[in-house]
User: Fold these one by one.
Assistant:
Number 1:
Amino acid sequence: MRSRIKSTAALAVLTIAAGAGLAAFAAPAHAAQSPLPLTCGGQQLTVRIPASNSNPNGGWAVGQIIAGGTGHGVPTAASGSLVDHAVDQTLFTFEQAKGGGKANHNQSTISCTASETGVLGDYLGPGETPPPGTSANDPVTFTLMVTVVPHF
């Protein structure tokens, strides 16, 4: 599946007062940043996160709130899926917990979600063909869920 899924997942997983989607380590100041709209605990936020998940800490990065509030969030777990609505089938899922699921150190957490709709072709890599029974024109939704330690 295309880097867009992986990027979005990494960003979510990478972010959050969202996230990505991978966390608690700030990216270097020169790293590219991307905005990510999220709903966290019922609040609409836009979070700025590093556009790369290649840092030495596994890609987990703090998400800085840039609209809808102030502060930042430290992601501790992320999961997501890509659903093809034309065939009513989940094509991709992932689940990852930072620190083996113990990254929140017993701190309060909130759940953040983001979703994006498009066509399957948007999520395929160059030269990659759609899974059997699907079409590059099928409508799809990518959903990201992130557990975050809020600092706002």
Number 2:
Amino acid sequence: MQIKFNKTLSGMVEKKIYCLVVLLLGFSMVTQGQMYQTEEGYAEFIGYTPLFSFKGSSNSLRGSVNLADSTVNFELPIITLDTGNNKRNRDMMKLINVEKYPLAKFEGKIITPFRRDTPVVQEVKIKGIFTVHGVSQVLTIPGTMHFTGNGLEITAEWSQKLTTYDIDPPSVLFYSMKDEQDIQVKAILQPAEASN
């Protein structure tokens, strides 16, 4: 009688352990399926003077979106920004002190609902900390997210003042550059397991 009880108890414990392992593996797979990454997103800024504007762009935006906890992390090596003019590029790198501050970073969280079960473009807001030139500011950035056949596509646009980040607007061809710049990012992120 005692032996039978122990076998029954042992069988129940084994079933519970098996169920726990299956649940943990299932949760792990779901969590992995909610992480999306990119190494080649697009970022640009547009600078303005009284007479003209110019653009700097890069295809080296790196980052991730974790839909499990709504976290967003992106960084851009500033040295990869190209304005189409070598002298302007050099002046920009010197102005930002790219050797000391090589990255622009954003770390935040999606603060509006996002549905995974539809390919419709959805407007989202992301709140987080944007850091450039060693200065960090809290921003709430509007953007869009949606699934395509290529992955999770995101876009975001906002304006910022250079002086907010302790950057003095430079002079371009004798014209002072305006303090405010427009920034845009676009990226298609792949499931994390597919990018390894």
Number 3:
Amino acid sequence: MKELDEITIRRAAKKDQQAFRQVYDYYSLFVWKVIFRTVNGDTEAAKEVVQETFIRVYTSLGSFGFNSALSTWIYRIAYNTANTYLSKKKSKRLVDGLDVDLLVDGKTKENYENKEIVEALLSAVSPEERFLLMGREVEGISFEELARITGKSSEALRTLMSRLKARLRATYDNLNQKK
């Protein structure tokens, strides 16, 4: 992702409203896409998490040290905000709205005959795993950048992703065998 210019970011960090509006306009779609999928298409939840994310960005932008891309820093805030939100709502399992064909290599929506199969595939996927899947598979964020966001090593994230995809494939295969 191409980053917003440093001058605008520095002005926004000094609470310049117009500059912060530019930051919001530039990064909000990126944050929305990731959050919306992380909360499985729950529009109200996504609005709440995105709003809270940008409140946090606004209040702490002055501490941004340009040690990473601003998008990485914002993604980290979105990641933490989504995890906090979902942990508060953990009794609610949200599985609608996630494109399964993005999660299982070579599988397409046409391969899934009904919503129950999709729900079964995703029933064991944690919010953190869902966030990782969306970041990596949908947004194309590198493992190195995801490592900076999550605080885990890129090798650990690669292993997690590999195991997660294998688990989804195995669940899918088991469901097909039961038919």
